[in-house]
Amino acid sequence: MVAKDGSSPKLEPSFLNSVQTIQDPAPLEGIATPKQIDDDDVYVDITEGVGRATDVSKSGRVSSYRSLHRTSSRQRLSRLESRIHPEHAKALLPTTTLYVTVMIALVGSFQTGWLLTQLNYLPFHSVKTCSAVPIKPDTCILFSGHSKNEWTMCVTGWVVGAAFGAMLSSIPADRFGRKRTMFLNAFIMIVGGGVQAIAHDPYVFALGRLISGLATGTVINVSNVLISEISPCQMRGLFSTGLQVGVALGSLAVTSTHYLIGTGDIAWRFMMGLPVVFGLVQVLLMPMTVESPVWLVGQGNVDDAALAMKRLYKPTNYEAILNALVASHEEEQREIAEVQPWAAMVSKKYRLQLVIAIVVCASHQITGVNAIMYYSATIFNNAGITDPRVANTIVNVIRLISVVLVAKIMDKFKRKAMLITGMAVMAVASGSLVLALTNSWSALAVASVGTYIAAWGFSIGPMAWMVAAELFPDYLRANAGSVGTMFTWISNFFVAVSYPVVASEDSLGNYAFLIFLGILVVLIVFIAVVVPETSHKTYVEIAQAFGIQEKSHEAIEGQDPWATPRVSHYSAFNEPTHGDKSATTVQETKPVNMPHAPTQ
């Protein structure tokens, strides 16, 4: 079904209210006419070229299933799952195309990890070697003789770019789509890597880092949304950990590269320019990916969403699931129309939740994790380790392991218990690191940093944004995520700029991590006293902890989630996907393949 101009039809604002019983629908191009129609069946009026929702319930409406779900604190539901019936989620089995789409999207998270730690290499920068006169061979090899402030500028240029990229990423993602935004963003990634590779002074290099940061902030947000909008319940683990694993693998890869580059000019330029390759990979492979059906439904491109579903998921009752997505979108739009989200966020009703969200998201960084990720080579060198590469590798391996394991245990423990315990271990590790640095105990320094990273990975690392989002109703969670992202990057920048200053010999020196220890103690008290438990609770239950009485949704009774007309009213469901032998039309699918209890 296409419009006269060849484009996909757009949804009318009140399409759900226009569902009619049609005794004899006129045949349209690309849509088969049923041979027989029962009086009880309800069909979509498509005579004006507009795709609308379908239902065969007595109400004549498709119900939104968003109210059936508990908050993501119980089962970190993907954005797709939260909009459809649980039976729909079980029936969506991923195709190879879905896995390819996710893997290509995750190239951006690998690039993030690469850029995060690419400068954490002692021959690139050391205050002692770069300020020496003359500079010794094979030291300070990145723009020999650069100052401490110039180096801080190079490190933080990426942070500033990523902050702006993250905060502005929703604009192109919502306007142009997730797939197209990632495609365009890949060119920014290529430019940033190229500028870094050809730079001949720290200022041009910092500009390249800034551009790369813009690409990083954009891709990490947009890829996260895309994966969340296409991941069925069978891929919940990948949805929960894929981005973090990608970042951890990128950091481990760049640390391993430090063994190979030596001290030559060509070698480090190749390493700095490798994001060009990451960008080219995404540009070349992006045609193999599929746009998010959730976004397409939001744009009114229902037939395009139908085609996307056929490519992403194995044959099932696509139309019932698409109808649920459409109904959920309309319900969400009605909720947003009733309030001003940003005004609601800062209102007295949600003010305490907003403060908690800001503090929790800021604690993701102000506890010092990126002081380690940016400057661990210098930290280990101060502890008496002449070649910190092995220690850095150990730390990144520990980070990768913790990211993988936390997904297995996160739902087995209470949120507050994990946060408080993890941050307490981080505080102890910070104290032991100070002890190791002041006494040049290299083994204790490695153990302390490794313990700190593991504890971070099991607590505030994966939980900051999760807890912040759970404090708000569904229609405010996107805004809460934006605020959390902003304060996370602000805190990241603050740590990146301030740590070299407080860790210098004329300041706190080896005692710098005592600041993070103090911050951790304050945060532990704050979480214990102020932050409510969100684990295994609905939003209504969480709101009661703030003295807010929210309306409880009643369960939908007597609603068959698989109720659809015999013949699809989305043209994509009546035509097999080109080159896909597994694709079937709705007419060809036998009732047994319209699963009420799908095979797992």
Automatic annotation (TrEMBL):
<dbReference type="Pfam" id="PF00083">
    <property type="entry name" value="Sugar_tr"/>
</dbReference>
<protein>
    <recommendedName>
        <fullName>Hexose transporter 1</fullName>
    </recommendedName>
</protein>
<dbReference type="InterPro" id="IPR005829">
    <property type="entry name" value="Sugar_transporter_CS"/>
</dbReference>
<feature type="transmembrane region" description="Helical">
    <location>
        <begin position="354"/>
        <end position="377"/>
    </location>
</feature>
<comment type="similarity">
    <text>Belongs to the major facilitator superfamily. Sugar transporter (TC 2.A.1.1) family.</text>
</comment>
<feature type="transmembrane region" description="Helical">
    <location>
        <begin position="266"/>
        <end position="285"/>
    </location>
</feature>
<feature type="region of interest" description="Disordered">
    <location>
        <begin position="573"/>
        <end position="600"/>
    </location>
</feature>
<keyword id="KW-1133">Transmembrane helix</keyword>
<feature type="transmembrane region" description="Helical">
    <location>
        <begin position="205"/>
        <end position="226"/>
    </location>
</feature>
<dbReference type="InterPro" id="IPR003663">
    <property type="entry name" value="Sugar/inositol_transpt"/>
</dbReference>
<feature type="transmembrane region" description="Helical">
    <location>
        <begin position="182"/>
        <end position="199"/>
    </location>
</feature>
<feature type="transmembrane region" description="Helical">
    <location>
        <begin position="389"/>
        <end position="410"/>
    </location>
</feature>
<feature type="transmembrane region" description="Helical">
    <location>
        <begin position="511"/>
        <end position="531"/>
    </location>
</feature>
<feature type="transmembrane region" description="Helical">
    <location>
        <begin position="480"/>
        <end position="499"/>
    </location>
</feature>
<comment type="subunit">
    <text>Homodimer.</text>
</comment>
<dbReference type="GO" id="GO:0015149">
    <property type="term" value="F:hexose transmembrane transporter activity"/>
</dbReference>
<dbReference type="InterPro" id="IPR036259">
    <property type="entry name" value="MFS_trans_sf"/>
</dbReference>
<dbReference type="InterPro" id="IPR005828">
    <property type="entry name" value="MFS_sugar_transport-like"/>
</dbReference>
<dbReference type="InterPro" id="IPR045263">
    <property type="entry name" value="GLUT"/>
</dbReference>
<feature type="transmembrane region" description="Helical">
    <location>
        <begin position="417"/>
        <end position="437"/>
    </location>
</feature>
<keyword id="KW-0812">Transmembrane</keyword>
<feature type="transmembrane region" description="Helical">
    <location>
        <begin position="238"/>
        <end position="260"/>
    </location>
</feature>
<feature type="transmembrane region" description="Helical">
    <location>
        <begin position="151"/>
        <end position="170"/>
    </location>
</feature>
<dbReference type="InterPro" id="IPR020846">
    <property type="entry name" value="MFS_dom"/>
</dbReference>
<feature type="transmembrane region" description="Helical">
    <location>
        <begin position="443"/>
        <end position="468"/>
    </location>
</feature>
<dbReference type="GO" id="GO:0016020">
    <property type="term" value="C:membrane"/>
</dbReference>
<feature type="transmembrane region" description="Helical">
    <location>
        <begin position="91"/>
        <end position="116"/>
    </location>
</feature>
<feature type="domain" description="Major facilitator superfamily (MFS) profile">
    <location>
        <begin position="101"/>
        <end position="535"/>
    </location>
</feature>
<keyword id="KW-0813">Transport</keyword>
<keyword id="KW-0472">Membrane</keyword>
